[in-house]
Design brief:
- The chain has helices spanning 14-18, 20-30, 43-53, 78-85, and strands at residues 2-9, 34-38, 62-65, 71-73.
- It is α+β, with helices and mostly antiparallel strands and 88 residues long.
- The protein has one domain.
- Strands 2-1-3-4 form a four-stranded mixed beta sheet, with helices on both faces.
- The radius of gyration is 12 Å and the shape is globular.
- The two termini are 19 Å apart.
């Protein structure tokens, strides 16, 4: 698991679940697994999200690459998601 690739999500978030197949594909094709952090029911994770988001997105899903400082707000295409994960 790549602990530098963070995926903030909400358990009941429809848009978060839209990203499940892309995350599974990323793991299968590239061997990259994201660290998933639930924020709607976990205040500790919500605080980490608030710190990293810092007004960039304001919701979930929110993806943050700790190595590059790049983020993705909301759902995205597989190509953009893969590029983000690979630090491109």
């Amino acid at each position: 698991m790549a602990d530098h690739l963070l995926w903030f999500y909400g358990t009941e978030c429809v848009h978060c679940h839209e990203m499940d197949p892309l995350a599974e594909r990323l793991e299968q094709e590239e061997g990259i697994a994201l660290l998933k952090l639930e924020v709607w029911h976990d205040m500790k994770n919500a605080a980490v999200l608030a710190d990293l988001d810092n007004g960039k997105c304001g919701g979930v899903p929110f993806f943050f690459n700790k190595l590059t400082g790049k983020w993705i707000c909301g759902s995205t295409s597989y190509d953009k998601f893969k590029a983000w994960a690979l630090g491109k």
